[in-house]
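agent> Task received from the user: take the single chain below, predict its 3D structure, and emit C-alpha cells. No templates, no multimer pairing.
agent> Plan: (1) validate residues, (2) run structure prediction, (3) serialize to C-alpha cells, (4) report one or two observations.
agent> Step 1 OK, no nonstandard residues flagged.
tool_call: predict_structure(input=
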Amino acid sequence: MATYRQLTEPASEPLTYQQVKDFLRLNGDTEQTFVTSLITVARQQVESRIWRPLISQTMAFQLDYDELKTTPYNINKAPLVSFQSVTYYDVNNALQTLAASNYEVDIYGSPARFRLKNIPQCYERMNTLQVNFTCGYANAAAVPSPIIQAMYMIIGHLYENRQDVVTGTQVNEIPHASEFLLEPYRNNFIFAPLI
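)
tool_result: status=success, residues=195
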C-alpha cells in the first residue's frame, strides 16, 4: 500500500508561544515547555484530521512495485508547492532518478496529482518508487484563520484537561466546534485512489 513519509519537519509552528500564552491568559512562564508542546500536538492533530500540512515541509510518498500504473495518483497533502524528485529501484535494485520528462504533475488541484507517463523497469520490491515534494503554507500568516482558531480551541482543551478521565469531574471531549472550523479545509479523496 502506498504510504506517506515526512522527510523534513516544518521550520516553525503556526502559533507562537506568546500567542498561546496570551490566549490561555497565563501570567508567568513556568509552563512554557508544556504549552509549547501543546502547539506542536495541536498542529499534528489538525494535520492528521485534514490531510493538509500547515507549515512548509518536505514529504514523500512511496509506491510498491505492484502499484505502479500510468493513471493519476492523488496526493492528499495540499497545498502542494513543488515536486523535488522521483526515484525508483531499477531491475538491478539500484536507486535511480526518473527524468522529469517521464512524469507529469498538477500542483494546483486539491488534491494534487502525479502521473507516470510510462512505467520504468523496476525491481520487484516494496517502496520501489518514491516521489519527494514540498507542501504546506509558506508561513504562519498564510494559514487560514479558521485553522488557527481550531488550533486555539484544541490547545485550550488540552491545557484544561490534562488527563483522559479525572474521577469526580465532568468528562469533556475535544471541542466539536474545531471540527466544523476544519471541515472546509479537509482534503477529500473519496473518488480516487488514496496515496
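agent> Step 4: summary for the user.
The beta strands are 3-8, 57-63, 73-75, 80-89, 95-97, 103-106, 112-116, 129-135.
agent> Done.
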